Amino acid sequence: RKEVEQDPGPFNVPEGATVAFNCTYSNSASQSFFWYRQDCRKEPKLLMSVYSSGNEDGRFTAQLNRASQYISLLIRDSKLSDSATYLCVVNKRAGTALIFGKGTTLSVSS
Amino acid sequence: GAVVSQHPSWVICKSGTSVKIECRSLDFQATTMFWYRQFPKQSLMLMATSNEGSKATYEQGVEKDKFLINHASLTLSTLTVTSAHPEDSSFYICSARRSGGWQETQYFGPGTRLLVL
Lengths: 110, 117
Fold this sequence. Notes:
- By secondary structure, chain A is mostly beta strands.
- In chain A, a hairpin with a 4-residue loop joins strand 7 and strand 8.
- Chain A is built from no helices and eleven strands.
- By secondary structure, chain B is mainly beta.
- The interface between A and B is medium-sized, with 18 and 22 residues.
């Protein structure tokens, strides 16, 4: 089983749509969780950290369920500029490398 | 935010040559840097962890004699792909760990695209 698994993509949605991505991780001792965004041929960039209490940043909402080892990302009112690959990322403990999911590609069209 | 640079941003070389990639943290000291590799449509895969002043720790399946890592200072780590072959063509990305404050963060370099002919 892969350490981080994500929804298979791609997701093709119209502008204004709400889209949700899901992710599961295998190591229950993992400590930190993130969503990264990666544009074509670019390095990944941190979108937001994910906390058990859930957190929101503008149109983006992230949720973490430690019991089921499940992470989600909700994007409301999709924009064309949201088109990218979204990577679910887990960190087992501070100081260690990040573990990336394969990513889910989102394409927002007008 | 913190900045991490990589050089070169892309390189094309002949099979059998060696390629050196530099990763620099520009405005903070990084005791730990990580080297990842990403093949098309795949996730970033950790190759090795680079600690300043000590030997790098390689992931299973990554040849340490082929991918030489040197972390000689708190702001510079280098990855040398020795005797590169076409199957080494990939996107190589480093990240630098910045600790301190209330949260630890890792910052990524812009990546280096390697094409081996």
